[in-house]
């Protein structure tokens, strides 16, 4: 195994990189967000188009990230890329957003979903405490062994995909289907340009969050110039297909009025499909599915914390790794933040402000494809964005559209996101005043 500049070892192959990206995407969003989408949108065509449009946007982003990550192969995701493309201050801010809204908050959301699905079967189990226990145990696994962490990730992701496929197959085999049609009417097309569709895309965008997951650990990926673009592309295509079909199955099984406002969409659909007893089994499988999402978030979030700690004195304690090259302090820091979100915010609030912030940072990164082509035209690019310059432009236009409506329709969550960014700005200023840039990696003996 070859060491990277930050001391991490290239131990992640193509399969695990795809697994991490799939695990980051498939989970909380697809099994929970439909209940919020049907509050304002009743059109079957428009609801499925949400997932197709979301997949196309994510794919445009993945194709763009592939170029940047292959050309600048260091772990850290947007933190590293924006530091290189624009300025270290913007990189630091994006890293702070990743630590909080990018990974700790979505980990909390997945933990809440795990608790909700478990609670649906065992009402005596507290939702928040069940989620918190899962976060602690999974963090302990990743903090003790890279090998066992990889095993946990690959096995739980395989179970996750199997559960989704099983749900789809059983859904189509069920005898009691709703009389729905995908054929659009004129009013259905009008919905696609409405504020309701834009706000609903926030939930869909959250469900696709993670399409860029492999770039956060590119420094640990074997042959990243080749494997990173493939991992991003394959994972996004797989998940888009799964999402569109799975949501069609949900709508095929459950009348829309019964879905409105529900978090445990999968459980409701399973009850219609199999009856209460079998639905309990499937609900437990879905809660197990959330383990894969939590695991992927914990694994990646700790690495971002480590990379930032290597570069900034104010966070230097978080860069420490043990003899097994595991960023234990980073994992612990993210675990504490996750528990904070878990016990202080509602599911929907965390989802909206996390998505708002992540869309902003990913948009700046994708715009970096244009910036780097202009500023460094001679830079070696092992992979170039397919469809350039159209694909990055589509990503940026769609995300600008979404963010504009979020600011108008969800001002409180937008202000929370702004508050998180302000804290990051203060941390950067504190580092400039009292710290130093470019700290060496610290090891615990």
Structure summarized in a few sentences:
This protein has helices at residues 14-25, 28-32, 34-37, 44-71, 78-85, 88-121, 127-144, 146-173, 186-191, 195-208, 224-253, 256-259, 265-274, 276-311, 328-344, 347-375, 390-409, 411-434. It is 73% helix and 0% strand.
Whole-number tally of structural domains: 1
Detail the poorly predicted runs: 1-7, 437-445
Encode the helix/strand succession as letters. HHHHHHHHHHHHHHHHHH
Q: Span between N and C termini?
A: 21 Å
Under the CATH scheme, which architecture would be assigned? Up-down Bundle
Estimated radius of gyration: 21 Å
Describe the 3D structure.
Helices cover 73% and strands 0% of the residues. It has one domain: Amino acid/polyamine transporter I (Up-down Bundle). The longest helix is centred in the middle third of the chain and has 36 residues. It has 445 residues and is mainly alpha-helical. The two termini are 21 Å apart. Helix 4 packs across helix 10 and helix 6 packs across helix 7. It has 18 helices and no strands. 56% of the residues are buried. Keywords: Membrane, Transmembrane, Transmembrane helix.
């Amino acid at each position: 195994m070859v060491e990277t500049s930050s001391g991490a070892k290239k131990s992640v192959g193509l399969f695990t990189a795809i697994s991490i990206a799939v695990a980051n995407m498939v989970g909380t969003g697809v099994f929970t967000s439909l209940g919020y989408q049907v509050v304002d949108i009743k059109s079957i065509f428009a609801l499925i188009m949400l997932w197709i449009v979301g997949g196309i946007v994510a794919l445009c982003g993945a194709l763009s990230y592939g170029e940047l990550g292959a050309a600048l192969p260091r772990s850290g995701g947007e933190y590293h890329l924006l530091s290189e493309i624009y300025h270290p201050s913007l990189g630091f801010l994006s890293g702070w957003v990743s630590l909080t809204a990018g990974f700790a908050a979505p980990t909390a959301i997945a933990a809440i979903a795990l608790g909700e699905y478990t609670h649906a079967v065992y009402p005596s189990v507290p939702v928040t405490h069940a989620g918190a226990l899962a976060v602690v145990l999974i963090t302990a696994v990743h903090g003790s062994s890279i090998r066992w962490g990889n095993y946990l990730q690959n096995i739980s992701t395989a179970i996750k995909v199997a559960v989704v496929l099983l749900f789809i197959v059983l859904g189509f085999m069920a005898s009691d289907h709703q009389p729905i049609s995908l054929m659009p009417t004129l009013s259905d097309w009008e919905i696609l340009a409405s504020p309701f569709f834009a706000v609903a895309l926030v939930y869909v965008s959250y469900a696709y969050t993670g399409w860029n997951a492999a770039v956060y650990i590119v420094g640990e990926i074997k042959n990243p110039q080749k494997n990173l673009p493939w991992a991003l592309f394959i994972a996004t295509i797989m998940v888009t297909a799964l999402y569109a079909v799975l949501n069609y199955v949900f709508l095929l099984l459950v009348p829309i009025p019964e879905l409105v406002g529900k978090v445990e969409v999968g459980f409701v659909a399973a009850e219609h499909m199999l009856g209460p007893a079998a639905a309990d089994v499937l609900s437990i499988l879905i809660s197990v599915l959330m383990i894969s999402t939590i695991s992927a978030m914990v694994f990646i979030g700790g690495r971002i914390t480590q990379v930032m700690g290597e570069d900034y004195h104010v966070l230097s304690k978080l860069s420490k790794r043990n003899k097994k090259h595991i960023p234990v302090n980073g994992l612990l820091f993210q675990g504490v933040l996750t528990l904070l979100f878990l016990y202080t915010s509602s599911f929907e609030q965390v989802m909206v402000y996390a998505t708002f912030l992540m869309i902003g940072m990913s948009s700046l990164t994708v715009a970096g494809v244009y910036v780097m082509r202009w500023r460094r035209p001679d830079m070696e690019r092992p992979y170039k964005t397919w469809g350039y310059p159209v694909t990055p432009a589509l990503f940026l236009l769609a995300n600008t559209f979404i963010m504009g409506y979020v600011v108008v329709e969800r001002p409180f969550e937008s202000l929370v996101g702004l508050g998180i960014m302000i804290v990051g700005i203060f941390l950067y200023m504190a580092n400039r005043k009292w710290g130093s840039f470019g700290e060496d990696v610290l090891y615990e003996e």
